[in-house]
Write a structure and sequence with these properties.
4% strand
Length: 114
């Protein structure tokens, strides 16, 4: 299992929902609608999302909330161009991490100037 930059292997449904500004019920709904999204469940039945699961949520979020696809349209897009959308989302994630890294450096430099 690949550890991410936060040091976590799994995320709760609440954490994933917060990442994308949606409700936990929306995440559960997407889980029922999209075959690709299959988080593990622990003995209590709590969902455990891996980094890959979070990427899939990101793909679904991007298609439905950013691009405005219907669920049927998003399903079709993922079926036809899954690798392309996964690559785009990975690029967006990399760009976001780079931006946060550079903002951190900027804050450090600003603090040293003060």
């Amino acid at each position: 299992m690949e550890e991410n930059s936060t040091g976590k292997y799994y995320y709760s449904i609440g954490e994933v929902a917060k990442m994308f500004g949606v409700t936990t019920s929306m995440i559960r709904y997407w889980e029922n609608e999209f075959d690709v999204l299959r988080p593990r469940k622990n003995k209590k039945g709590n969902r455990l999302f891996t980094q890959r699961d979070v990427r899939y949520v990101h793909m679904i979020y991007h298609l439905t909330k950013v691009k405005g696809y219907t669920l049927a349209g998003a399903k079709m897009a993922l079926k036809e161009k899954f690798s392309e959308y996964e690559e785009r989302v990975m690029l967006l994630e990399t760009l976001d991490k780079t931006r946060k890294f550079l903002e951190g450096i900027d804050k450090e430099l600003a603090a040293k100037k003060s």
